[in-house]
């Protein structure tokens, strides 16, 4: 598969799961799709809650799907949401992606009425703290 075909598949997976997002409070449905080290695509949506702070973003849902499906490392991420502005992962999600991705992994942020924005994890989360820091 070419990179273009991979991104097309990631976009389609993010959009398919975004339609199922549970976002009755913000009405801001988000989908995230991960290409994992096993070659599979794993997707997840945001899941809000009446107790607002315990809702979760689409990215951790996709990470959970990856782990449940047998994937171990993140090779590429595609995030879709409403509007024209690129839907970039929030700070907490950048750190969650960091746990499973190398610094050069590209994250594509796409407000579906606008253009996709491609950035590396290093760009989104410079000088990050990660698992290596805990190794003696
Ligand atoms: O990258 C993002 C940004 C926002 N949201 C969700 C959280 C919340 O449910 C809604 C509005 O912030 O969008 C995500 O899932 N991922």
From TrEMBL:
It holds the Pfam family dCMP_cyt_deam_1. Its cofactor is Zn(2+). Its EC number is 3.5.4.5. Keywords: Hydrolase, Metal-binding, Zinc. It catalyses: 2'-deoxycytidine + H2O + H(+) = 2'-deoxyuridine + NH4(+); cytidine + H2O + H(+) = uridine + NH4(+). This is Cytidine deaminase. Belongs to the cytidine and deoxycytidylate deaminase family. This enzyme scavenges exogenous and endogenous cytidine and 2'-deoxycytidine for UMP synthesis. Residues 5-132 form the CMP/dCMP-type deaminase domain. It is an enzyme of class 3 (hydrolase). One of its GO terms (molecular function) is cytidine deaminase activity. Gene3D superfamilies: Cytidine Deaminase, domain 2.
């Amino acid at each position: 598969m070419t990179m273009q075909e991979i991104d097309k598949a990631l976009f389609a997976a993010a959009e398919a799961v975004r339609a199922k997002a549970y976002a009755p409070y913000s009405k801001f449905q988000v989908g995230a799709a991960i290409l994992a080290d096993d070659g599979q695509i794993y997707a997840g949506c945001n899941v809000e809650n009446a107790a607002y702070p315990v809702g979760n973003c689409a990215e951790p849902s996709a990470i959970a799907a990856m782990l449940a499906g047998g994937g171990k490392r993140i090779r590429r991420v595609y995030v879709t949401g409403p509007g024209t502005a690129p839907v970039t992962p929030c700070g907490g999600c950048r750190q969650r992606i960091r746990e499973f991705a190398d610094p050069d992994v590209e994250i594509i942020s796409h407000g579906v009425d606008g253009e996709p924005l491609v950035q590396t994890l290093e760009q989104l989360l410079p000088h990050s703290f990660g698992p290596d820091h805990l190794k003696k």
